[in-house]
Specification:
Elements (H helix, E strand, L loop, with lengths): L27 E6 L2 E9 L2 E4 H6 L19 H4 L3 H15 L4 H4 L2 H4 E3 L4 E3 L7 E4 L3 H11 L16 E3 L5 E3 L4 E2 L2 E4 L8 E4 L3 E2 L2 E7 L18 E8 L2 E2 H7 L13 E3 L4 E2 H4 L3 E2 L19 E2 L2 E7 L5 E8 L7 H9 L10 E3 L14 H4 L7 E2 L5 E2 L7 E10 L2 E13 L5
Parallel strand pairs: 6-22, 8-16, 9-26
Antiparallel strand pairs: 1-2, 1-5, 2-3, 3-4, 6-7, 10-11, 12-15, 13-14, 13-22, 14-16, 14-17, 18-19, 20-21, 20-25, 23-24, 25-26
Length: about 425
Amino acid sequence: MHNHILSEIISWVDIPAHSDFSIYNLPYGIFSSPRHSARAGIRIGDYIIDLQALSELNFLDSLAFDKTVFQKNTLNEFIGLGKNIHQQFRNRLIELLTLGNGSLKNQANNILVPAKEVEMHLPIYIRDYTDFYSSEEHATNVGKMFRDPANALLPNWKHLPVGYHGRASSIVVSGTPIIRPWGQVKSPEQTLPQFKPTQMLDFELEVAFVIGKSTQLGQRISTSQAEDYIFGLVLFNDWSARDIQSWEYVPLGPFLGKNFASSISPWIVPMEALAAFKTNSPIQEPPVLSYLAFEGAKNYDINLEVAITAPQQGEKIICQSNFKYLYWNMSQQLAHHTVNGCNLNIGDLCASGTISGKEPHSFGSMLELTWRGSNPLSMPDGSLRKFLEDYDTVTMRGYCQKNNVRVGFGEVSGQILPAIPC
């Protein structure tokens, strides 16, 4: 069933025409409700398939793995079963959901939970998190603003996927409020820094991949092996305090300006659902070192957008970008991450870095969209935004589309709350 995505499949589940959660998708998440403890589920249309109930009703008896993984409050143990089991399970689920197979339909009331009735949870236990800096357009924009416009990229940028190790404990699921952080800030005209809430709170439009297979210390992953180690993708908002960041980042890079919060979408879209949306990477010049060389299409055509909603105002879409713009692809990121023998664990998260395109409307942060505040965005009520204000809600969405086949991520959102007085 690897080629299901290329042929028409009709489900007996009533799926809205433009739903992100078609039968071609089947993303994984952790949900709970007044009737359900936190457990594994799969989204289809406006429903969630209760995988524990599916197992208890014996629909998965033909599959040889421990079904108690669906009772856990993270997906890590299921992810650890490996891609062979994941594919077998996906094939079985598509079979059960396809129109004409009535066995599961007859049990729909016991298995399908309306999505509007549930609370979504962080889907994985994240032990480690790495953030890359893989968009040439974003890195160039930042270089123009903060360094030399004529030499915006640092000398190493086109030779390796730049990244840093972030803080896993502050990664939260979509819908979690974000409290405006305090920190040291210093403008060029000031002699001494001040301690105050950030005045330059920003989002970063990113996509992150979930590690699906652990490695041993000293083990390397090649670009040809990398996709075997990726379970799936989520939308990722790497909240940033630009004024704190610009004062602290020399000499060791991001710290308090980044680690106060990052948000992820609750549904992990498996790589099997994204296979038909592969696309070629940008041409890399100069040629990369041999361990970063790769063959075939390694980027993914994922449409992305960002919207801001302020209190008593309608939504304002401020950015439309695409995951395919990334200069450094996921396989290269993973190869570089492990070339020194760094080990990986199931559930680790690796984010892309801000995803910007060449056009101003495709810039993936307020820093770029307003050009560091010099060109504010107008909101529906006529007010202006240089950076995010208290009670703004930022919502990111993403989806793939080919003909009538749609595979989406839903959304990741978070509302800014005022800084807590010190």
